[in-house]
Design a protein that fits this description.
Elements lengths: L1 H16 L2 H24 L8 H11 L3 H10 L1 H16 L6 H44 L13
Helix pairs in contact: 1-2, 2-3, 2-5, 2-6, 3-4, 5-6
């Protein structure tokens, strides 16, 4: 999470300095790293992808709420696509970003981060309760007495 925060701060700094392509890249990286950190926290694993859609979908799956995330993805497809395009354009192509381009990317990144933070906060609690109930069922099973052959009437 710390690295995501550093990329976000770097993006803000680069905006002020007029390095709009680098600012946009940093905002995209902040989103990507935050989503990966959340996945790591939820599943213990990280997907090796740069696709924000794939990362969001995996978070929805990890919380058992994939359709809710897919609805968000459909509704904000353009924002997500703009961020994904930014990763490629700012890293591999000589695309010139203007201040309004970087600001649009910042807003898209913030929209996604705000959604995922609220989604995980709200649904992560449900997931924790479900996991605790599953663990209780497993521990209850362990507490069942074992029946020996002498208890079965000498079978």
């Amino acid at each position: 999470m710390k690295r995501a925060e550093v990329f976000w701060s770097a993006g803000e700094y680069m905006m002020k300095q007029g390095y709009y392509d680098i600012a946009a890249f940093n905002f995209e990286q902040a989103v990507q790293l935050r989503l990966k950190a959340i996945l790591l926290e939820l599943t213990g694993d990280v997907l090796k992808t740069h696709s924000i859609r794939t990362l969001l979908d995996a978070i929805g799956e990890a919380l058992g709420r994939r359709e809710e995330v897919r609805k968000f993805i459909r509704e904000h497809r353009n924002d997500i696509k703009a961020l994904e395009d930014t990763y490629v354009e700012t890293r591999y192509e000589a695309v010139v970003y203007k201040d309004y381009d970087a600001e649009a990317i910042r807003k898209s990144a913030k929209l996604i981060l705000d959604f995922v933070e609220e989604f995980v906060r709200k649904n992560g609690e449900h997931s924790k309760v479900a996991n605790q109930e599953d663990e209780k069922e497993v521990s209850d099973d362990k507490e069942l007495p074992q029946v020996s052959s002498s208890d079965k009437g000498g079978m």
